[in-house]
Amino acid sequence: MTQLAREGLWTNNPIFVQVLGICSTLAVTNLVLNTTVMCVALIFTLSLSSATVSLLRSFTPRNIRMMVETLIIAFYVIIVDVVLKAYWPQMSENLGPYVGLIITNCIVMGRCEAYGNSNPPGAAFIDGFFNAIGYSFVLLIIATFREILGMGTFLGHAVPYFSSEYWDKWIIMVMPPGAFFMLAIVTWIFRSIQLSKQEKKK
Amino acid sequence: MKNKRWFPVAYMFVVTVFFSAVIIGFSQVTEQRVKANEALAFEVAVLKVLPGLYDLNTGAVELHRRFTEEVQQPSDDSAGAYTLKQNGQIAAYALPFSGQGFWAPIDGVIGIEPDKKTITNIVIYQQRETPGLGAEVAQRKFCDQFINLTMAASDKPVVFRRPGEPLNSGEVHAVTGATQTSIRLEKIINDALKNWRERINAKQK
Lengths: 202, 205
What we know:
The complex is a heterodimer of chains A (202) and B (205).
Chain A: H1 2-11, H2 22-28, H3 32-55, H4 65-87, H5 89-95, H6 106-114, H7 121-151, E1 153-154, E2 157-158, H8 171-174, H9 176-201
Antiparallel strand pairs in A: 1-2
Chain B: H1 7-49, H2 60-70, E1 71-72, E2 82-86, E3 89-100, E4 105-112, E5 118-126, H3 140-143, E6 149-150, E7 159-161, E8 171-173, H4 179-204
Parallel strand pairs in B: 7-8
Antiparallel strand pairs in B: 1-2, 2-3, 3-4, 4-5, 5-6
């Protein structure tokens, strides 16, 4: 289990090692609150769909496994979507089409294929869970910087200095290109740390 | 059995039926809430375009009460618009409009002063346009252009100009990079306004 956790969070992190699920990284990280909800939705979807795929793995014929996987993922995503629409319409409006796009988020399919398909449900659940956490913490780092630099707020609260007139708000941080720059910087930093550790081991 | 040719088809069928059934059941349970939320979104849009009825810190229950108690339902006299009455006089009209956007229908409400010429405000509460481009029509930056705008008497009460062009009375800037959405929204708004103006003028002659 620690092995799965370390892989999902660090050595095989979905964002900066596997480089999966970048489209949602770019789209929803301009506000920390939106990102948090998106991440919770992804944690839910990824761990449960990976476990479900694993549960059905001995019955599913190989040639139609991807259809079945998509169906399972869509099932959980629709549940998230309906719950948001019913109990948090404001957030549902903010996230717009991106909740539905979790279905096509490459991490979900990627983990179901790479792990859920060939491992028992419990392990698949844990693998999905930690991969989603690994995705979430990178997204939250990006969102924190984007919101503070671009809007001068954190979770909607004004941050001293950054919300004052001394700080010229970086509009580009709020726009999609800002996510590109942040993603590249975060990937650069984390990969450098990983590489320098590997060097030392040799 | 697993090697039979029909097995994948049957398997897919069973799995689909199972998951669909769960989802259908689930959405039936939440259907009423979702409908109530959608109704509230419309009510809030009406309150926003009418003067003095909406503020940010009011809860959903209070907003619903204001809508049901203070706003008059559309009648023949108001030509399909909701009205706000103060001392027996009409203080403002709220005209719902909707039409096909670039991707999906756009629904909104437009507020009009009793002179039937000045727009008080506009709110778009339902749209699925391209995020960051067409979806900007629902943002305040775009909608604020309509506040205190005087409609032209011509066939086109509101004219959308290209971004950056100088504006005359009754004109607003379209959204940059969203030509299709802008063209459609211009038509939706103008059709609604023209239709309403004709009906209400015919009523009051």
